[in-house]
């Protein structure tokens, strides 16, 4: 009689596959990924899971790109255990996931021009609650198997600050995702992944050794059509706060708009998340060519096709 392998055996056999499967299974089965008051609507589709080497020099660069207060994965793991970074031995890995918004959520936002669709707004609140539960689940799973693990966003040391450009934090989920090769930033600031820009991101740092995923992007904005020289202004046009221009995303204007619609809009009162003032917006992440796909792939296919057309017809 052959017994099914235990969780520990599966983890040791292939840590990367084990972690990915656990995250996918949790997203698929957790009741917290559903909205009981909207017919058990499933908020997040199957996630993308990738890994970064915690000692990738990119994380040191983030101290100048974002701020000196931005933590490296080793610092983030050490602080969670009240240790010094040099007292965390061996490799540190970052587990980064993308939770793609369900089609109904994206459609609900596509239809709007000033405030978010109801499903987008619910997903902003309850979907992020689920993301928090997922972060805790992944960290607890690894701790239960004898590893050090922590979700920086869930730690008491997680902070947001503000400078002349607007808010920033000491653990940017998008920058962790960029390091793990999930995709690139964009004109609207959003991270364009292989499943597009309408998603939320999460991460856990651990001393479990995981193979770093490949970063294929040629630059930090390479997946954005605007960066590729295409005159795509879709997110500029979609933004009701005039917060996106050819120069990029104005975080201060965006934040002010989010506050204004969260606190005061009459339109938000019927059926939105009323126990909080967090309504979200994300109009720039829907009804745009990067909404649910990496638009650069399509562009490359088109260029290849045009290349074929340019060959003179010999027949
Ligand atoms: C503070 C914050 C905000 C602020 C500022 C946003 C911002 N751009 O940083 C405000 C209130 C405006 C905001 C708004 C929204 N937010 Co918000 N927010 C955050 C939070 C808490 C921290 C972000 C942070 O630390 N940023 C750091 C700064 C420095 O990043 P940045 O300015 O974007 O970085 C630029 C530079 O680094 C630059 N860069 C320059 N040179 C180089 C070189 C290299 C090599 C690299 C890599 C980068 C780089 O690239 C970046 C883009 O221009 C994160 C959660 C988290 N902990 O990460 C969520 C988060 C960014 N928000 C999120 C979302 C979804 C939203 C909203 C859509 C609201 C909603 N839910 O409906 C809007 C969209 C805003 C937008 N267009 O990006 C998601 C984004 C997911 C995605 N699809 O990209 C996050 C990651 C939350 C999550 N857990 O998923 N948010
Ligand atoms: S809508 Fe166009 S310009 Fe804006 S982020 Fe997406 S691809 Fe880039
Ligand atoms: S989240 Fe809303 S206000 Fe902020 S940039 Fe996008 S569309 Fe504009």
Summarize the structure.
With 315 residues, the protein is of the alpha+beta class. The chain is 37% helix and 14% strand. Strands 3-4-10-5 form a 4-stranded antiparallel sheet, sandwiched between helices.
Architecture overview:
- By secondary structure, this protein is of the alpha+beta class.
- The protein has one domain.
- A hairpin with a 7-residue loop joins strand 8 (183-184) and strand 9 (192-193).
- The model is unreliable at 309-315 (pLDDT under 50).
- It has helices spanning 7-13, 15-29, 57-65, 73-80, 103-110, 118-144, 173-179, 234-238, 251-264, 295-310; strands at 34-35, 41-42, 48-53, 93-100, 149-150, 160-163, 166-169, 183-184, 192-193, 199-206, 244-245, 248-249.
- It has ten helices and twelve strands.
- The strands form five sheets. It has a four-stranded antiparallel β-sheet, sandwiched between helices. A two-stranded antiparallel sheet has the order 1-2. It has a two-stranded antiparallel sheet with strand order 6-7.
- The protein is globular.
- The structure holds cobalamin (B12) and iron/sulfur cluster (SF4) (2 copies).
- Cobalamin binds at residues 65-66, 124, 131, 153, 160, 166-169, 171-175, 178, 185, 188-191, 197, 199-201, 220, 248-249, 251, 254-255, 258, 280-282, 284-285.
């Amino acid at each position: 009689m052959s017994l099914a392998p235990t969780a520990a055996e599966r983890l040791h056999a292939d840590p990367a596959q084990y972690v990915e499967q656990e995250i996918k299974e949790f997203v698929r089965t957790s009741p917290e990924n559903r909205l009981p008051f909207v017919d058990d609507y499933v908020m997040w589709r199957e996630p993308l899971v990738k890994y970064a080497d915690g000692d990738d020099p990119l994380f040191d660069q983030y101290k100048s790109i974002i701020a000196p207060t931005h933590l490296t994965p080793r610092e983030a793991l050490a602080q969670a255990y009240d240790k010094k970074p040099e007292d965390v031995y061996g490799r540190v890995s970052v587990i980064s996931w993308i939770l793609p918004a369900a089609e109904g959520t994206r459609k609900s936002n596509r239809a709007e021009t000033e405030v978010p669709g109801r499903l987008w707004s619910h997903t902003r609140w309850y979907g992020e609650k689920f993301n928090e539960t997922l972060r805790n689940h992944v960290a607890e799973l690894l701790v239960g198997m004898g590893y050090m693990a922590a979700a920086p966003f869930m730690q008491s040391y997680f902070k947001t600050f503000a400078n002349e450009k607007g808010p920033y934090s000491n653990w940017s989920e998008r920058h962790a995702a960029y390091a793990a090769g999930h995709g690139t930033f964009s004109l609207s600031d959003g991270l364009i992944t292989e499943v597009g820009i309408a998603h939320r991101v999460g991460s856990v740092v651990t001393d479990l050794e995981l193979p770093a995923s490949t970063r294929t992007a040629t630059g930090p904005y390479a997946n954005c059509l605007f960066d590729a020289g295409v005159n795509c202004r879709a997110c500029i046009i979609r933004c009701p706060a005039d917060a996106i221009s050819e120069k990029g995303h104005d975080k201060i204007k965006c934040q002010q708009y989010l506050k204004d619609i969260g606190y005061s809009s009459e339109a938000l009162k019927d059926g939105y998340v009323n126990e909080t003032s967090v309504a979200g917006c994300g109009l720039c992440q829907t009804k745009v060519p990067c909404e649910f796909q990496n638009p650069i792939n399509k562009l490359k296919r088109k260029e290849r096709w045009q290349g074929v057309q340019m060959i003179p017809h010999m027949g």
